[in-house]
Amino acid sequence: MKTVWFIIYNVIVLPLLWLIIMAVGLFKQKFRVGIAGRKNLFPNLQLQLAKWNDDSKRIWFHVSSLGEFEQAKPIISKLKISHPEYKIIVSFFSPSGYEPSKKYKLADAITYIPFDSYWNAKKFIRLVNPAAAIMIRYDLWPNHIWQLKKRRIPLLITNASMSPDTVRRYPLLKSFHRIIYNEADYILTVSENDLDVFKMFNLDHPKFDVIGETRFDQVMLRSIESKKKHLIPAHITTGKKIFVVGSSWEEDEEVLFPVFYQLQNYNPNILMIIAPHEPTNQNLERIENELNGNTTYIRFSDLNDYSGEKIILVDSIGVLMALYQYADVAFVGGSFKSKIHNVLEPAVYGIPVVFGPHYANSSEAALLLNEGAGFSGKTEADIFEILKNLFLHEEFRMQAGTKANEFVKKNLGATDKFIAYFEKLLLN
């Protein structure tokens, strides 16, 4: 059956996939950037690898994008400390992960993964020549996996998760994915529920365990580092309740701005700090046009001139995690658009986390709701009532924040569990 799927995948699926990627690239800049970035993939990779000895020990990490890379980072950091003899190679599928990560200091080489043709995969695995491959969550490319298997290179899939209603459960896709997942040596899942879903494939080769989510470890490490950054002078925040809105889209702002104007009637000392997901000049000017005549605002880069404005509009990137430390309440964006962004970043600081109705992509958001640390609303009226209760009732807000922090702390430790499996597979 493996041979049949190999033929179907390489003769039918891959050519269609390539045509789709090229067609979408005509309209989507993200795809064009990814295609262009792969033009010199192998020469660039050879340059990075040329400085190493041929017998150097190497670990290959593959991630889809930035979110999965955050899950890989605590593992990479731990490996660098406990096994410094290994060189770390990280590959990305998406330019949204590759571009901001090119200078990540703990990786010895960073690259795109090539398009998953048989010859590309064979050349890539030969060049990288890893002692082990670690794939994060779900981005699995069959030809690369088959090349790993052919060369008897161990494969670990960690932070593995899968929804019970996944399309992979349908007969043909189930048969195909059973072949792929059966090539792994370890599948380490986020939860028992994920493990139960994987069991439906009736896999006979991988060893399974539930280790949790390494992103909890990463967000804790980042919060410790972020607390060292003093981005807002104390005189701006003293005596105010701080409402931080992270990674907002226009759909989020259409709800939040009217809510904020209403909240000012109850507590005029609420200061909103809003960090748009896309802080381009065009988007910032759009937001400023929305705010004109309704409230006062100032850009983050102009804080030296702060004179009591009600909204700070963040026009920088890479500062959101540090800004959450100032918050009394946080709203996580994307949740009125289609997919919520990272809810753990505010939760680790021990503050209530508020979001809209679209959070199905985040198991952490659902768990925060269950813990009484997260709050979701479907409408402007819902969000207003949630925020009013949080800002007007100190004890209620503090209790929710404590639950958020406890939720993060009780889920720490996945990285150490992974390292134990890594050592068991490679060092024993």
Features:
428 residues; alpha/beta; Rossmann fold; 2 domains; seven-stranded parallel sheet; 19 helices; 16% strand
Detailed description of the structure:
By secondary structure, the protein is α/β, with parallel strands linked by helices. The protein folds into 2 domains: 53-212 and 413-426, 3-Deoxy-D-manno-octulosonic-acid transferase, N-terminal domain (Rossmann fold, 3-Layer(aba) Sandwich); 230-410, Glycogen Phosphorylase B (Rossmann fold), CATH 3.40.50. 48% of the residues lie in helices and 16% in strands. The chain has 19 helices and 14 strands. It has helices at residues 2-25, 29-37, 41-49, 66-82, 95-98, 118-128, 142-150, 171-181, 192-199, 214-226, 234-237, 250-266, 281-291, 320-323, 344-347, 363-371, 380-392, 394-410, 414-426, and strands at residues 57-63, 86-92, 109-112, 132-136, 155-160, 186-189, 207-210, 241-248, 270-276, 297-299, 311-313, 329-332, 353-355, 374-376. The strands form 2 sheets. It has a 7-stranded parallel beta sheet, with helices on both faces. A 7-stranded parallel beta sheet has the order 10-11-9-8-12-13-14. Helix 1 crosses helix 2, helix 4 crosses helix 19 (414-426) and helix 6 crosses helix 7. The two termini are 33 Å apart.
